């Protein structure tokens, strides 16, 4: 197959590119590298089946030629992070919603066989039910979550109106090698690993008993490929680990001292995906345990050597608008 991967230089995207090339497919990466890193694809620099185009989807400057013979489109490009989305809601709308409209239309015109969207479990906000099913009420708590859900609505609408074979995968707490090291304070694994390298204590939110559905990136990539290979369409499915883990458990596995910081408004005490639907429809289930995933990260910890080192004081400064707007 020939596949387009938007955001292919990003954390999940680069692992998806690895998998597609390994499976023998031809891959076209579209990324503006605002958060993705060219270094994430450097090991494929001379690969005959990979082409990389630095483009911004929100600009609408996509050439239809890029979609010649394309069968699969994996749409992972988006702006992430909570705090910047509060500060710049229109920037997030343009990147995540308008950008999605442009890639959907290009895919429709190319008659692609499968369009798989990387949605976010943040659309559930603070849910009433755990594990949380796809039928749970949508309650986005901040502009990033809203923009990802609005884009998902567009993906489903293009499927409904135009017959584009679309699948939306709502991802839960993805982690793994090459996870983001840039951006405003947020991604717990990158923060903790950089702190470990620097000999600084881990900044644990609240008392650390809150739990997260930490899902290893290779499992997530497998869900994307499985969805594209299937004949399922016009569906929304959760992607999670089949478990939920306390942040304190993560600290124990990585090993180090702890500095506790205030709980943040709008964050759930638990994230836990009900993955019954994707298991029944696609036969997909996560395979990598948290213990094995953390071992993998510790083996590649040097990747985070240049990452920002966060302290309680710098986190408080970076998240002050989080508390200002959401702590009402």
Task: Give a brief description.
The chain has 11 helices and 13 strands. It has helices spanning 11-22, 82-87, 89-109, 143-162, 188-198, 217-229, 247-254, 276-282, 290-299, 312-318, 320-326; strands spanning 2-6, 26-31, 50-54, 72-75, 114-120, 166-171, 174-175, 202-205, 211-212, 215-216, 235-239, 245-246, 258-261.
Main traits of this protein?
single chain; alpha/beta; Rossmann fold; UDP-galactose 4-epimerase, domain 1; 2 domains; seven-stranded parallel sheet
Q: Explain this structure to me?
A:
The chain has 328 residues and is α/β, with parallel strands linked by helices. The chain has 2 domains: 2-174 and 216-239, NAD(P)-binding Rossmann-like Domain (Rossmann fold); 176-213 and 242-270 and 288-326, UDP-galactose 4-epimerase, domain 1. It contains 11 helices and 13 strands. It is globular, with a radius of gyration of 19 Å. The model has no long low-confidence stretch (mean pLDDT 95).
